[in-house]
Sequence to fold (539 residues):
Amino acid sequence: MAYSEKVLDHYENPRNVGSFDKNDPRVGTGMVGAPACGDVMKLHIKVGDDGIIEEARFKTYGCGSAIASSSLVTEWLRGKTLEQARQIKNTDIADELALPPVKIHCSVLAEDAIKAAIGDYLGKRTPTTQTDPPVGQ
Amino acid sequence: MNGPIYLDYSATTPVDPRVAKAMIPFLFERFGNPASRSHSYGWDAEQAVECARAQVAALVGADPKEIVWTSGATESNNLAIAGAARFHRGKGRHLITMTTEHKAVLDTMRHLEREGFEVSYLPPLANGLLDLERFAAAIRPDTVLASVMHVNNEIGVIQDIAAIGTLCRSSGVLFHVDAAQSTGKVAIDLDSLPVDLMSFSAHKTYGPKGVGALYVRRKPRVRIEALIHGGGHERGMRSGTLATHQIVGMGEAFRLAREEMAVDNERARALRDKLLAGLSVLEETYVNGDLEARVPHNLNISFNFVEGESLMMAMKGIAVSSGSACTSASLEPSYVLRALGRADELAHSSIRFSVGRFTTADDIETAVALVTRNVQKLRDLSPLWEMHLDGIDLSTVQWATH
Fold:
């Protein structure tokens, strides 16, 4: 399979690899996918007091397109409000990376990871009331 | 071409230069149709075809009259299985095979199911080998044919075809063997083996693509129905003008295989052992399939917590295959590895290395260094590796499967 230059770039030089302290109240964790399906993404966002995402980190087990999708969203998330982050669609990711149809699920997984991380963060802020719908697949 | 190091000999092999040299005259001055009986062009081509037939027969201990030319092992498998099943339809409608067979066998079986046959698909033991007791128990009074491959294309394990054939003989069941991956690697003596039909391919044994053969036993005579009808070539079993140059190439390739098998195997074993020793240094690696009952050319290994396609992407310098779903259009990981009972994630993490006649020790050293570096790099990126290091048992985690 031929990969786009952007996929290769993110795959060879992945941005923002790593983790934050998942117990930090300012950190939201999104872990999506399953090893049996061949891809697992873990996304961490760190949100400032102003509600803006200061930084994002990822670790991904999966094909090159999955790694590139998660690397790309860590770049996109930085400086966005939670509401803006929630607007990121899998089609935006797929278009940016020129993913072929068979790899669209990688971009879907990245979108799910964003939603899961936001949900986790909001859940920590208001532990008694559910402010965000659970992210399902 | 100065391409990546080729470690995918189980997919196909380059044509040996000696084979190519033998083929060329049959594209030019010796172009005759072997079926032409009225002039020397035809006689010459026919003689070349018969010489090649004897060369193929010699490698596998058969009589040349038992060799039928086909377009490759896929056609041979179709012809053997569908041809025998349809011919013996009156006797019974039950067939037996394994879940780890090549698609050319499995899809033929599926097709026969639609024609009213019933097929038992036997899973292998965890080492990839057939459970003989289970096989014996699967044989029924209406069983017509069993098909078990000699050497598995993905994991290289060698089935005990002598024992399986003996069970078939004692029950009056025809026995077909797909030997596409075994010629030139495992000694085959059809004179003594209880096998009725055997499929061969040229291009897995340093011959050209597009040609193969089917062994059809004469004593006792095995009857099959043709799939391709026409001029009655190959005693009516496979019509169509013979591809003389391809056939000559297959003959020469099999002649060389017979002469050089011992040397080739010894070299392959040394290279494979070197590869295995180099890769075993990495933690959490698992060899798929039995290491003893296995051709020396194959190493199928899973690098846990690393996805196979991303690993192949990182190793542009070497050409290998993966059982990862991402390398197939279906998004399913290797059905062969799953049949071994391997966890899906290990199937996704598998790489098949296959060495051959032109692989060098330098190639192996380069490959080991490249794999080691990139497995480490991808594990640093892997949340599963991180969890493993934290002592989390991944099988206890509730994953959101998608």
Observations:
- The longest strand of chain B covers residues 298-303.
- Chain B has a mean pLDDT of 95.
- Chain B touches chain A through 30 residues (CB under 8 Å).
- The CA atoms of residues 244 and 326 of chain B lie 39 Å apart.
